[in-house]
Amino acid sequence: MYVGIGSKNPVKVKAVEEVIDDGKAVSLNVPSGVSEQPFSDEETRLGAINRAKAVVERGKVEIGIGLEGGVEEIDGQFFVCNWGAIADKNGTVHQAGGARFPLPDVIGEKLRKGEELGPIMSEYARIKEVNKKEGAIGIFTDGALDRKEMYVHIVKILIGQFKYYSKVKA
Ligand SMILES: O=c1[nH]c(=O)c2ncn([C@@H]3O[C@H](COP(=O)(O)OP(=O)(O)OP(=O)(O)O)[C@@H](O)[C@H]3O)c2[nH]1
Ligand SMILES: [Mg+2]
């Protein structure tokens, strides 16, 4: 399957490569069409869909995948949320949501001031570009689950739906 991923972030690219059959994905820098730091499930999901569609519109690949991270406030506490979408040239789109977990208030306060989670996490964990490594989920689970593995889960749900619904339609 010749697949494009709408990000140059290595954790997202590796997650797609790990799941697809031939193991090779084209990575493209495409706009998400939402804020750099999405602030709700809706906005994060839309960012994933926009990225997936933008990849296909570039015309290099038949199938595009968009993965987007964001935050969602529930009862005064911020949770990291993650969404993915897969799109093909015929306009088919499938979606999937991933893990969510709470962030400490000290991080929530910085998010409220308009800072982006990636840099906040790097400062908090004292790890450069932690968003391209284990990510917030790796830090707050003591390494039990890293950001790539979290996206692998989403990509499996995306590719799985794509295959299932292609068969059903045939
Ligand atoms: O360290 C992190 N661990 C995570 O689990 C996580 N989830 C989201 N974010 C941050 O939320 C913003 C939008 O996310 P995002 O989808 O735009 O990702 P990104 O900016 O890292 O990649 P990309 O935009 O180049 O594809 C960015 O500031 C991300 O760093 C995370 N940071
Ligand atoms: Mg980003």
Q: Key terms for this structure?
A:
170 residues, alpha/beta, 6 helices, 43% helix, 22% strand, binds the ligand O=c1[nH]c(=O)c2ncn([C@@H]3O[C@H](COP(=O)(O)OP(=O)(O)OP(=O)(O)O)[C@@H](O)[C@H]3O)c2[nH]1, binds magnesium ion, nucleotide binding, ITPase-like_fam, Probable inosine/xanthosine triphosphatase, YjjX_NTPase
Shape: globular
The end-to-end span amounts to 18 Å
If you consult CATH, what is the topology?
Maf protein
Second CATH tier, the architecture:
Alpha-Beta Complex
Q: Element order, helices and strands?
A: EHEHEEEEHHHH
Ligand roster: the ligand O=c1[nH]c(=O)c2ncn([C@@H]3O[C@H](COP(=O)(O)OP(=O)(O)OP(=O)(O)O)[C@@H](O)[C@H]3O)c2[nH]1, magnesium ion
Helical segment count: 6
- Identify the CATH class: Alpha Beta
Q: Low-confidence runs (pLDDT<50, min 5 residues)?
A: none
State Rg. Answer: 16 Å
How helical, in percent, are the residues?
40-55%
The residue-averaged pLDDT reads: 95
Main beta sheet: strand number and arrangement?
6 strands, mixed
Q: What structural class do you assign from the helix and strand content? A: alpha/beta
> Beta-strand level of the residues, as a percent range?
15-25%
**How many separate domains make up the residues?**
1
**Total E-strand runs:** 6
